[in-house]
């Protein structure tokens, strides 16, 4: 009996089918031997394949998304998949079949669908129920770069503007306390006390 696991994000679903590796005493709910995968995108044709297709396709999406983040020319080409930007919001995907005489599958997706696909792949990578040999899957992109934060410096640049804004606000507010005219407050207190 094969196991099935689904990873969902908004309008995208990734289904992994496979078996545990009983020779490693794995849990019966585990998947280490992937026999099939399916990527379902709402209003788009079903994308499916064998394990050997999953790694290159995941790599393609990770590499392409990192190219977008780095503001380089958004284009990725390989034997199985081509991805290029039509404009800032539309991405053209050409999936080529490994079988002869099968026409390529062409998809156009927006930024939100691209993000949902990447999120499903991230869920698969982080799942404790699916064990995939690292040398077969997504070795081209380190995990930190999948999220767009390649190192601590980039994270520091992301947080720093907000931190500076808050500090500036506190400094300006505290400066006004020193310039506030306390004489009016004292006069009001004296009038109230005299009554």
What does this structure look like?
The structure is a single chain. This protein is 41% helix and 24% strand. Strands 1-2-3-4 form a four-stranded antiparallel sheet. Strands 5-6-7-8 form a four-stranded antiparallel sheet. It has helices spanning 51-69, 111-126, 143-146, 152-179, 183-194; strands spanning 3-9, 12-19, 33-41, 47-49, 75-77, 81-85, 90-95, 105-110. It has 195 residues and is an alpha+beta fold.
In brief, what are we looking at here?
With 195 residues, the chain is α+β, with helices and mostly antiparallel strands. The protein has 5 helices and 8 strands; from the N terminus they run ββββαββββαααα. The longest helix has 28 residues, at 152-179.
Write the layout of secondary structure elements.
Layout (H helix, E strand, L loop, with lengths): L2 E7 L2 E8 L13 E9 L5 E3 L1 H19 L5 E3 L3 E5 L4 E6 L9 E6 H16 L16 H4 L5 H28 L3 H12 L1
Antiparallel strand pairs: 1-2, 2-3, 3-4, 5-6, 6-7, 7-8
Helix pairs in contact: 1-2
